[in-house]
Design a protein that fits this description.
The protein is an alpha/beta fold. It has helices spanning about 20-30, 40-50, 70-80, 95-100, and strands spanning about 10-15, 35-40, 55-60, 85-90, 105-110. It has a five-stranded parallel beta sheet, with helices on both faces. β3, α3 and β4 (about 85-90) form a beta-alpha-beta unit. α2 runs parallel beside α3 (about 70-80).
Length: about 110
Amino acid sequence: MTRDANAPGAYVLVVEDDPVICKLLRWMLEDEGIRVRSASNGLDALEQAKQQRPSLVILDLGLPILNGEEFATELRHLYRSSDPPVIVVSGDTATSLRARAIGAAAFFQKPFDI
């Protein structure tokens, strides 16, 4: 993550529809002193990103309402050249190709080791 991770207003946006994984990611990041916001679908995540640019997005691609790929495309349009880095988390090994296609900075397969 960038140096501004703890700057005023900086936050990580966790976009995950599995409440257990979302809670785990939130706990892990907050334990490091990082501000976290979360959303369980792509539409809610996009609304939060419109309110304030996240420093980093941790994204599941299999989301309801607006899937992860659609969210990433909209996020890219919203912030153009300053779009935040995206880390994709998924239980599907084939998703690593989809993660690359959306320009994700990294891919982690579920379950992952904290």
